[in-house]
Amino acid sequence: MEPKLTVGEYESVMIQTLRFYLTARGWEIYSVGKIQVEEIRLNASEPNHMLEILFRDDARPECLFGWRYPATDSEAPDDPEAITSSGPAQAEFAAEAFVITSFVEQIEALGYGLPAECDPGGLTWIGRY
Predict the structure, then answer these.
(1) What span, in angstroms and rounded, lies between the C-alpha atoms of 29 and 36?
(2) What letter would DSSP give residue 2?
(3) Range(s) of the domain holding residue 62
(4) Which of 14, 34, 119, 126 is the 20 to 30 A CA-CA neighbour of 79?
């Protein structure tokens, strides 16, 4: 049986998996141009921690976009030492199957995509979170 992770460990595995697929491996995602992921981070400033992906579209490099997704479905997301019901394999699967799929869908699916306008000096958030 696989060991259970704390919320902090689970979030760490999620970040590592996302960085592997979206930056190191270079998952290809397109809007108008190719999407370049610049940063993947954890925002723990709220009780419900969020994964944040910052990226640019090659067609509009002056625009920095951001997208968020819940980091865990733990009942104690604000306690990094709380034990989750998941192990490393489940965290990796969640990053691949849910987070990356939702991120790609947000950018490439008909009716979603990137906004026509952006703040060239700031960060333009997209998505529902």
Answers:
(1) 8
(2) P
(3) 7-126
(4) 126
CB–CB of 64/56 below 8 Å?
yes
User: 42 forms bridges with which residues in the sheet?
Assistant: 51
Domain tally for the chain?
1
Question: pLDDT by residue (tens digit) across 52-69?
Answer: 999 999 999 999 999 999
Whether 83 is covered by a domain: the verdict is: yes
The helix or strand, by DSSP H or E, that contains position 94, with its residue range, turns out to be helix 88-94
**1 within some domain:** no
The answer to the question of residue 84 being in a domain is yes
Q: Which amino acid is at 52?
A: E
Q: Nearest to residue 99, comparing CAs of 5, 7, 6, 15?
A: 15
Cα–Cα dist 127/20, whole Å = 22
Total-model pTM: 0.90
